[in-house]
Amino acid sequence: MPASRVVAETDSETALGWSRSLIVGGTLVALMSANAGVRGAFSNFFIPLLEQLGTSRTSLSASFTVSRVVLGVVQPFLGKVLDRHGPAAVIVPSTIALAAGFLLLPFSSQLWHVYALYGVLMAVGLAGTSSSIGFPIAVQWFRKQRSLILGILGAAGMLGTLAIVPGSMFLLLNLGWPQTCVLLAIASVLVALPVMIGFLPKARPTEAARLVRPGTGSIAEPGSATGVTRAPVSQLGISQLLQNRTFWLLVVPTCASGTSGTLVQVHFVPLMLDQGQSPQVAANALGVIAAIGIAGVLAGGVFAYRLGEKNILTSLYLLRGAGMLLLPFAGGTVALYLSVLLVGLSWGGVQPMTGGVVGDSFDRGAMGTVIGWIFSIQNVVGALGAILGGAAHDWTGHYDVAFYLSGAFLFVGATLTFMIRTRPPAGVN
Predict the structure, then answer these.
(1) What total number of domains does the chain contain?
(2) What is the pLDDT of residue 255?
(3) What is the pTM of this model?
């Protein structure tokens, strides 16, 4: 490859110009904020929906599980669309689906309505505006400060949770369920407006999608001294990824993260209510987790330059595992503050740090495909966290067992992440 072309690729954010870079970055920040906030707000609606439909916690939790499974199934395909056709082809129809789901959800009178609207339609919308789309765009356009940019996007998700979760609870308590859904539908469209009117440039993937580290020819397959050969984007699929040791060492820990995430997103507010907290205080506590997460994810992005993204990712799994073990004891003030602190510090950093490790292992032209598959598997397996919480409460009358199992799974994830072989931190960026 000519030297001039290499310089052009590594300095793509300069070539774009600051104005276009700001449009890309600002739009991604808005999308990540809205997406995380909408997902986190489900916990606010759990008890009202439970009372309205008269169903069990397990059955209602399953609607969130269906949502995560659908989200996971469609993510790899949306990643392919992103790699080939650019952001607008994914984000615009996804935003329309999300807004339509919000508008129709108040008309739900039976459980299957929630499954169809939240579990399927809105899940497609969330998939197309999620980090599995935002992170590949960021990796493609911003090369020099990748860890910092990914950290900012992770912090944006925390900011969205901080604003939307307490805000939607306030609206729900003061305006009611239908009005809150209408306002969230409008907000979903507004944050995607730059994409819908054509302001977001199309990201250009590199020509070859390779299962390699930048600057090397291959990455070794398990049990083989040879590497996986280069393949165009169209040929890179799950069959190749399943032969990659690093892929598995990333997937299993992200599944641990996913199960803990759905457990908290669906059952955190009910857990706090069981411990005597008011609905608004419970929603505010979830918002505090997000606020702490903003600092945690930004700090992780900065420290990753020196410590390496793999080491930061390992630490995040350990912190969240400890926090999950403490949450069942959060009825006391000290335990509540400590558990919120531990979970918060780790809440937003897992996906951006995972994206960074992927960026060192796979060519940028395949980011949408590779990250799409990792987060797809994470969503399908992680969806079990919602059912785990509901079933544990239905069977035992409390959430303790679910949070203990989630914490143990995260410790396993930390161990596997530490086993990933990476280059020295100085070569990360």
Answers:
(1) 1
(2) 94
(3) 0.66
